[in-house]
Structure formats: structure tokens, C-alpha cells
Specification:
The structure is a homodimer. With about 240 residues, the first copy, chain A, is α+β, with helices and mostly antiparallel strands. In chain A, about 20% of the residues lie in helices and about 30% in strands. In chain A, a hairpin with a 4-residue loop joins β8 and β9. Chain A is globular and about 50 Å long. Bound molecules: magnesium ion (2 copies).
């Protein structure tokens, strides 16, 4: 059930993008359709709005104007990892597919220990494990900048920016896992994790959240074209109906 | 020299948009081509990325999904004005043109006293005054969210969000005034003002800044298609060449 795209010619690229984006584009801002994932780049924060992957089984991106690029030097000494949005491990069908996940458009500053190398990595592995047993798997990933109440009672969005290019450090990341278990039988899981060290003992399930929480703060709708009546489980729980 | 668009039929709208955007689109995210101005809406911050106007002489925008709308109630009691990006006074050619500047997509939370009602208003009036004597005037306006260094030595972007829809309060606003004085003779002025009360005694010229400062933080290029050799003045100073 895993089609072989290794031999896909360049002419087929647009149809690969439409496969990946089958259930709707969250938005169209600065789209990049790479060989094996589709990304919308936020030139203001120097990191993506979202990245979408479709599974069936470090270099600057020169296509972005230099004003808006993030570069390795921005991350260097910042204390943050260059965290992948589309995970490298999901795109092993060709060397160039793997390479493209290392483009800096696909990176976000992530806390290393306790996040990128730990809990976030667990989530990526969990997604990959589920993908092995599904007909089709779609993964949408992105950064979030959530407000917090301060002592004056007002809400503020606050995030660090790093390097000469002021790359934004997201406060949170989301990942939405859409699994087609059997034809017309979908399961969907919405995760939101803080960009902080997370103790190993905390279960992944504690980061499940309602879609609206992600959608409102991200500023786009997720898999809006997915037929709702074919979704049999949301956040690991059966839906009597939808 | 002021063409009469009052009788422009709906069929002409696309060509009006291309007139307005003659020197390049800063971006294509959630574009709205209104009768007399063009706007790119940022669904994450609930206020525009930018608004572009071309001069020759308050209701929610239902075209935006409700998750991403800002509403009058968001502004109510916040202490901020609903500040126009495209100024109402620039679009008096028809009632519907004026009305469209009151759409909430065209609003940003602005400090009232000392800013929206004062220095920012001065800048709008100044632009209008200059437009009266130019063949064509293009005005690009938008919000900015600039980082500041905190006590820990790191840079942070911090801005308030208001109301149930978390409408972002920009830290600064920019306005770029492009005047075609005579055919092939352009003048351009780049302004950046803090969203704060500004004393009347401060001259508008003290807010002139280099284009790169706006472009880097806004995340887009401004009037990128303008032939540089036709620009005779930048920030009120002659350019020997460009
Ligand atoms: Mg990683
Ligand atoms: Mg105003």
C-alpha cells in the first residue's frame, strides 16, 4: 500500500502536492511545494505558518529573499535547536526528500533537551508508528504564539527572537495527525505542546486538545475539506457521529 | 487629473486592483480587493498585514471566517481606538468606498489620544495634501511588531491582544507614501511610528526611516516593481542616483 515515489519525475510534482494537500490548504501565504511536503512560510517570523506531510509507508532556502531568510548563524549560540517541522524520518524515499526537510524554512527554534530531543521526538515517532498501519497519513505541523495573562490583567503575546534575522521562537507547537485507517474511515488527533522542557513521565495524550484552540491561534482551518462523517475517532475517542 | 471612478462598473474592479498594486504586491496572504483599496489580512493577528491605496485626487467583514474576525466588541473597553489603515478620508469617491474603509479588516487597535487622533492623523492629512498635487499617489500602510531587548539581554516581541478574538495591538505602524510627481518622476517616503501617545511638538520627519527597517520586520518588500531610476527623492531628500 506504499506507492513508490522514488522514481517520480519532476512533471508529477504538482500532483504530489495535491495528494499531500487533499483535505485542504490552511492558507496560501508563501507556499513551497517540496518533493514530499508542502509548507507555508511566514516571512515575518522567519519560520513556517504550517507544514503538511503525507505518509504512505541544513542549508538556507535560497528561494526566500535574503531579508526574510533564517540562517544557521541565527540559531548558533541561541540555546535553541533547529527543530524540524516536517520530520526528516518521514521522508526517506529519496535523498533529496530528506535533504529538503533540512531547509531552514522547515526549521523552528525548539528547546532541545526535554522537547525537540524528547517529548516532541516521541510525538514524531508515534505518528510514524501509526502511519505504518494506515492507508494514508497526513500530518500538519506548525508553530503557535499564544497569549498569556500578565499581572496587569491584560493578555500579551510574547516570544523571543534570535539572531540577526530575528527568527521567532514559538511559544508552542501543534501537530495534527490524520489517519485513513480504511477507505472512508478516518481518525484525527490534535496535539499542542509548549516549547519547553517536558518531563518524560507526562503522557502524549495530555497534549491532545480541541481543534478550535489550534485553529483560532494559528489563524487557519485544518483539513477543512475532510468529510466530517468519515471521521470515526477524534483525539483517540470514538465519535458517535460528527 | 483625478479620474472619476464613481461610475466604475463592477466589471472594472480587477483593473482597479491592478492600478492600485501597480508597483508590486508585498504578498498574497488573504487578499481582499475592495473597490478602492487592496488589503492582505493576517488571520493570526486579526488585523491586516498591509493595506495599499491609490489616490488620484464600522462593520465586521463577513468574508472572513468567524474564527478569524475581529469584532467591535473586541475593541470595546480595551482603551484602544479602531484605527483605520486605509484612511476613510482618502476614499470619498462613493459611499461604498468610504464604507469599505470601515470594515474591521481595515482596522487596527491604535492608541487614541496622541496617536490615532493626533500624530497618525497628521500623517494621513499630510499624505492627502501631497496627493492633491501629484499625478498618482500610492500609500502602503500596516502594523509592525518590533522586538525589544529585555533585562536578560535577549530580544522579545511582545504585544497585547484584546477582546475574545485576541486582536493584536501592533507596537508600531508604517506608512509608505509613493508620489508620481510627473511622468517617470517619483518621490517616496517611509514612515514608522510607535503606537504610543506622541507629543504634538515632534515633527513627522523624525519618523522617516530606511525601507529595510520596515521590510525586514513586516516580512515583505515594498513597491518592489517600482523602477528605481525614476525615484528622484527618498525621505524628502534628492537621490543623485538610485
Ligand atoms: Mg526534531
Ligand atoms: Mg484614524
Amino acid at each position: 500500500t506504499v506507492p513508490d515515489y522514488a522514481s517520480t519525475s519532476k512533471e508529477l510534482a504538482p500532483s504530489r502536492a495535491s495528494q499531500i494537500m487533499k483535505y485542504g490548504f490552511p492558507g496560501f501565504d508563501n507556499l513551497r511545494t517540496y518533493e514530499d511536503f508542502v509548507l507555508s512560510y511566514d516571512r515575518k517570523t522567519r519560520t513556517a505558518h504550517w507544514v503538511c506531510e503525507h505518509l504512505t509507508p541544513d542549508r538556507p532556502d535560497e528561494s526566500v529573499h535574503k531579508y526574510f531568510q533564517s540562517r544557521n548563524e541565527d540559531y548558533k549560540g541561541s540555546g535553541f535547536d533547529r527543530g524540524h517541522l516536517a520530520a526528516a524520518g518521514n521522508h526517506r524515499r529519496s535523498q533529496s526528500s530528506v535533504d529538503q526537510t533540512f531547509l531552514l524554512t522547515n526549521m523552528s527554534p525548539q528547546v532541545g533537551k526535554g522537547f525537540n530531543r524528547d517529548k516532541w521526538n516521541c510525538l514524531e515517532k508515534y505518528c510514524r508508528g501509526r502511519a505504518k498501519k494506515a492507508l494514508n497519513t497526513y500530518i500538519l505541523t506548525g508553530p503557535l504564539y499564544l497569549p498569556r495573562k500578565e499581572l496587569d490583567g491584560s493578555l500579551y503575546v510574547k516570544y523571543q527572537v534570535i539572531g540577526a534575522n530575528h527568527v521567532a521562537v514559538p511559544t508552542h507547537f501543534f501537530k495534527v495527525l490524520l489517519l485513513e485507517i480504511a477507505p472512508g474511515n478516518f481518525e484525527i488527533e490534535y496535539y499542542m505542546l509548549p516549547n519547553q522542557p517536558i518531563d518524560d513521565s507526562v503522557e502524549l495524550t495530555s497534549f491532545l486538545c480541541v481543534p478550535e484552540l489550534i485553529e483560532r491561534s494559528a489563524g487557519f482551518l485544518i483539513f477543512a475539506d475532510l468529510p466530517k462523517n468519515q471521521v470515526k475517532k477524534i483525539n483517540r475517542k470514538g465519535t458517535g457521529f460528527w
